[in-house]
Write a structure and sequence with these properties.
Layout (H helix, E strand, L loop, with lengths): L2 E9 L2 E8 L7 E10 L2 H7 L16 E9 L11 E4 L2 E2 L5 H4 L10 E2 L11 E5 L3 E4 L5 H4 L2 H14 L7 E4 L3 H10 L7 E5 L2 H10 L4 E4 L5 H8 L5 E6 L13 H8 E9 L11 H6 L3 E4 L7 H10 L8 E5 L4 H10 L6 E5 L2
Parallel strand pairs: 10-11, 10-13, 11-12, 13-14, 14-15, 16-17
Antiparallel strand pairs: 1-2, 3-4, 3-8, 3-17, 4-5, 5-9, 6-7
Length: 351
């Protein structure tokens, strides 16, 4: 029996870097030597037991990863050993009403590799051929681990129908908000505004995209400031990417703030997976005849993301604050919990 090392969540709040059985491949699968894997916000929820009973223990998370093919099954036709690939972790049923309409992110039984089954926080993983996306060798291997999170940004832009010359608001400067920013900047050169309550996150975005406007919602009224920046017009598209929000006296919650910030007939796209209710005054949306939509995971945007990585139009290193040895994964999760302003995207280096 072949073995490998993997980061195993033995109990909620505790990882162990230990030897486990190396997976075997089926005829239509490849064996991927994981190069880098990213810690996602969903992984933080899993770590704390907030996805129970969806995830069972012991468990190997990790749905943001890329690596090199080391072995291919006899039925694999389009990939070969040695190629760098990113893995789309989304698994849909193909039979529910959403799937029959080819709207796979809304699958009623959607599963995610590394959430509903063991994922990429190990040295090797077996993956069906259809989940693979080839990446040119000109792209650094650690950028392959960023494809999934960046694709979420591109999917959100697709859902919101961001057009050239749109003005855009991104409420939330965490991992998802920063991925939206990256995607938005491939769509429009017009004004982009980012709102958060953590200056370090805003400064990180401003450092790499100096033409954007940043607003700390704890220091000033964000809706008033957005109104000033847009000359009273409001933005064309507003993204809510906060999820768990901190109530600030005199300030709207992020969803309502986005509604208040759009122009007439503007669009609000909600991505934040908070558990708290986010009260809104619907007449504020109705008066503007605005559009309120949601965005979840991605829907084939891996190809668009990889194309932009190859062209150099994305800045994935702008989101990466730490690269750790996988044996230090416990410290990585604790860093994200204790110092969220200091750490954005943490990658585990497995090569």
């Amino acid at each position: 029996m072949k073995t490998m090392h993997a980061a195993v969540l033995e109990k909620y709040g505790r990882f162990e870097w230990k030897k486990v059985k190396q997976p075997e491949i089926a005829e239509n699968e490849v064996l991927v030597k994981v190069a880098y894997a990213g810690i996602c916000g969903s992984d933080q929820h899993i770590f704390k037991g907030e996805f129970h009973p969806r995830t069972t223990l012991p468990f190997v998370p990790g749905h943001e990863f890329g690596g090199f093919i080391t072995e291919t099954g006899p039925a694999v036709r389009n990939f070969r050993a040695g190629e760098l690939v990113a893995v789309d972790p989304i698994i849909w049923c193909g039979k529910c009403p959403a799937c029959l309409r080819h709207h796979y992110p809304a699958c009623t039984t959607l599963k995610i590799l590394g959430v509903d089954m063991n994922g990429g926080f190990g040295e090797y993983i077996n993956v069906p051929e259809h989940m693979l996306y080839r990446i040119d060798t000109s792209v650094p291997p650690h950028h392959a681990a960023m494809v999934e999170i960046l694709s979420i940004g591109f999917h959100a832009c697709s859902r919101a129908k961001v057009k050239a010359d749109d003005t855009v608001l991104i409420w939330g400067a965490g991992k998802v908000g920063q991925s939206i920013l990256q995607a938005v900047r491939t769509k429009t050169t017009n004004k982009v505004i980012m709102v958060d309550i953590i200056d370090k996150r805003l400064n990180l975005a401003k450092k790499h995209f100096p033409d954007i406007y940043t607003i700390n919602a704890g220091d000033q009224d964000p809706v008033k400031r957005i109104n000033e920046i847009t000359g009273g017009d409001g933005v064309d598209v507003a993204f809510e990417a906060v999820g768990h929000y901190t109530e600030i006296p005199g300030r709207p919650n992020p969803v309502r703030g986005c509604i208040q910030s759009i122009r007439g007939a503007g669009t609000v796209c909600v991505l934040g997976l908070g558990d708290e209710p986010a009260p809104v005054l619907m007449k504020e949306l109705i008066w503007k005849e605005g559009t309120l939509i949601a965005s979840r995971v991605s829907h084939g945007e891996f190809a668009e993301t990889i194309e932009n990585l190859g062209k150099g139009t994305l800045k994935p290193d702008a989101m990466i604050t730490d690269i750790l040895d996988p044996a230090k994964i416990q410290a990585g999760f604790e860093m994200l919990e204790k110092e969220p302003g200091d750490h954005l995207k943490i990658l585990l280096k497995l090569i």
